[in-house]
């Protein structure tokens, strides 16, 4: 399987922070399979990746993209902030239940503090499922045991049964643990390098200030010597 962003379309999932409805934009994604190419519209709303059903027709996918953009724009106009609660969007989704968008949802979990990356949940079928999962994860992030709880959630996401589609399938528990251990090790190396670089930059800045101070002191001393 190869995921190919459609030409002249935004790469990846856009991060939309403006509350201006006219700036709400979805991206068009293409998946190449042995049976041909399939297209779907995707956007991110308040930390949730929202995707339409996949279709072999690019024209149909573009139509679905316009409709899902309109859905998000209506939610923004109703007062739902792009990075705030999802209740306004849930109302818009429920109103659009008969529009045949085939919507599915993935919650984005920010683990940059622990492994330097964001991850996505398995596909969720409704916005209610997203809200329940988000509430549970917000509780899990409280206290000193946040990372162990989120780590277990990540393992569960990777090992949960899923329909084999687009050559995507669940991992074994061992594979999931190995992937997380690798991510942790790589992040520790990255953090150590950033710390070394920061310390080196601080030393260079101090050396530059010391040299500048020494030069200014020397310039002040020279006129005094000549006056004597």
UniProtKB/TrEMBL annotation:
Top-rank lineage group of the source organism: Eukaryota
Disordered, as annotated region: 1-21
Name of the protein this chain belongs to: CHAD domain-containing protein
Organism from which the protein derives: Durusdinium trenchii
């Amino acid at each position: 399987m190869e995921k190919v962003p459609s030409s002249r379309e935004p790469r990846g999932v856009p991060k939309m922070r403006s509350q201006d409805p006219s700036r709400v934009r979805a991206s068009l994604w293409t998946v190449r399979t042995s049976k041909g190419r399939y297209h779907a519209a995707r956007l991110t709303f308040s930390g949730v990746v929202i995707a339409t059903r996949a279709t072999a027709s690019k024209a149909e996918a573009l139509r679905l993209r316009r409709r899902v953009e309109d859905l998000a724009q209506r939610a923004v106009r109703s007062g739902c902030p792009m990075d705030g609660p999802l209740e306004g969007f849930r109302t818009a989704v429920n109103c659009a239940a008969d529009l045949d968008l085939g919507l599915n949802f993935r919650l984005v979990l920010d683990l940059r503090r622990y492994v330097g990356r964001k991850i996505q949940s398995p596909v969720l079928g409704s916005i209610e499922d997203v809200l329940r999962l988000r509430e549970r994860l917000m509780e899990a992030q409280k206290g000193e045991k946040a990372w162990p709880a989120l780590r277990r959630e990540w393992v569960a996401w990777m090992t949960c049964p899923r329909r084999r589609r687009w050559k995507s399938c669940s991992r074994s528990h061992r594979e999931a643990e190995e992937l997380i251990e690798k991510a942790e090790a790589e992040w520790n190396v990255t953090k150590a390098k950033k710390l070394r670089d920061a310390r080196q930059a601080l030393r260079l800045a101090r050396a530059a200030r010391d040299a500048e101070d020494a030069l200014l002191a020397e310039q002040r001393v020279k006129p005094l010597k000549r006056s004597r």
